[in-house]
Amino acid sequence: MVLIDTPPMVNISDARVLARFVDGVILVVRSSVTTRDAALLAKQRFSDDGINMLGTILNGWNPNTPGYGYYRHYYAGYYHYYGKPAEQAEKEA
């Protein structure tokens, strides 16, 4: 078995070019860095090229951090307009 680590495929075409010569690819996404849209775009490009995608690896995930990740900015905007939930405000008081 040979594994080849390529640069990020959304910005650089190396992964797509090499993928045409392999049996399958594994997409590696970095927690809190790779956006959902970038991961879906990579998956779609492999699909468009007829590449067999074997799976995905989540890299750099820390189970001790809050799980907001992708929705962090949504919650920040929510608090800006509506204030913190009553339960959280009571805990901080």
Spans where pLDDT lies below 50 across 5 or more residues: none
C-alpha end-to-end distance: 58 Å
| Overall geometry | elongated
- What would you report as the Rg, rounded to the nearest angstrom? 19 Å
The description of the largest β-sheet is: 2 strands, parallel
Percent in strands: 5-15%
Helix content: 25-40%
Structure class: alpha+beta
Describe this structure in words.
The longest helix has 13 residues, at 36-48. The chain is of the alpha+beta class and 93 residues long. It has helices spanning 14-19, 36-48, 72-82, 86-92, and strands at residues 25-30, 53-59. The radius of gyration is 19 Å and the shape is elongated. Strand 1 (25-30), helix 2 and strand 2 (53-59) form a beta-alpha-beta unit. Strands 1-2 form a two-stranded parallel sheet.
Search tags:
about 90 residues; alpha+beta; two-stranded parallel ribbon; 4 helices; 2 strands; elongated
List the helices and strands and how they pair.
Elements: H1 14-19, E1 25-30, H2 36-48, E2 53-59, H3 72-82, H4 86-92
In short:
By secondary structure, the chain is of the alpha+beta class. It is 40% helix and 14% strand.
